[in-house]
Amino acid sequence: MRVLVTGVKGQLGYDVMNELAKRGYEGVGVDVEEMDITDAAAVDRVIKESNVDKVVHCAAWTAVDAAEDNVEICRRVNALGTENIAKVCKELDIPMIYFSTDYVFDGQGTRPWEPDDPVVAPLNVYGQTKYEGEQAVRKYLDKYYIVRIAWVFGVNGKNFIKTMLKLGKTHDMLTVVADQIGTPTYTYDLSKLVVDMLEKEEYGIYHATNEGGYISWADFAREIFRQAGMKVEIKPVTTAEYGSKALRPFNSRLEKKKLTEHGFDRLPTWQDALSRYLEVLKGFER
Questions:
Q1: Choosing from 14, 103, 126, 206, which is the catalytic residue?
Q2: Taking Cα atoms as reference points, which of 207, 88, 89, 95 lies closest to residue 144?
Q3: What are the pLDDT digits (tens) for 81-137?
Q4: What is the CA radius of gyration of the chain?
Q5: At CA 118, angle to CA 4 and CA 120, rounded to 5?
Q6: Separation in Å, CA 15 to CA 129, 198, 257, 286
């Protein structure tokens, strides 16, 4: 199996390439330098010349607050770029995996979002454009996976854990939002599911975050410092008190039982994922 992976400089694309190699598959990794996904002609040329069997589309505009001031470029990347890839996949009759987000939902209530829940009103530009990407995939393809993830962390790039660890070195107390509830996603664990999906044809929309229960960002921060052996006090604040340019969902709970129903292994607990991740980061520091 030969697989084109977009966004290989990001957290997820990096791990997907590694997982493909571990299983003896050939990953063709591209980022914006090799294939600008907003350029339809470039997408058509690169995918066809790569002679791949499947596409894993990890590239995205993920700067949530910056998206509010860069609506057009965010839409070009997340919606148009995804549409460009989906069109070529349709022409070549090859499957595609697209990663979306809990931000497509309006973030209200406390019930975990089901994969087939209707998307009505994303709260911000990022969520809206990722949903437009979903719509493009569904419009052009029958053989697709749309995988919604949340609170992503991996070794290759910036994330909440790295930010907390860095701030914890210079602060005894940090204020962290406590009224947004969800579950983290470790890209190393997610990449294994991704390759499992490439090996099957159980197409559709799925939710995939780590197991271990739903938490707030403040809960997550406390566990990060506990496992890292750092004494940092976490002061919980509301989203309103913290303030941010883009609206954030209070409810990022994602229901994942559909994975089990279709024969996929669910991800390990986020607590276990965090422990393994911190060990990996130690290796980078040496």
A1: 126
A2: 95
A3: 999 999 999 999 999 999 999 999 999 999 999 999 998 889 999 999 999 999 999
A4: 18
A5: 100
A6: 24, 15, 24, 21
In angstroms, the CA 8 to CA 25 distance is: 16
Residue type, 172: D
Pairing label, strands 204-207, 2-6: unpaired
CA distance 245 to 123: 11
**Measured between alpha carbons, how far is 229 from 135 in angstroms, rounded to an integer?**
44
pTM of the entire predicted model: 0.96
- Phi/psi at 27 (5° precision): -95, 130
Asked about 126 being catalytic, the answer comes back as: yes
Helical ranges in 27-110 per DSSP H: 40-50, 64-67, 71-75, 81-92
For residue 216, give the DSSP letter. E
CA distance 88 to 205: 20
Question: What residue type is assigned to position 160 of the chain?
Answer: F
Q: What is the Cα–Cα distance from 27 to 18, expressed in whole angstroms? A: 8
The DSSP code sequence of 188-208 is HHHHHHHHHHHTS---EEEE-
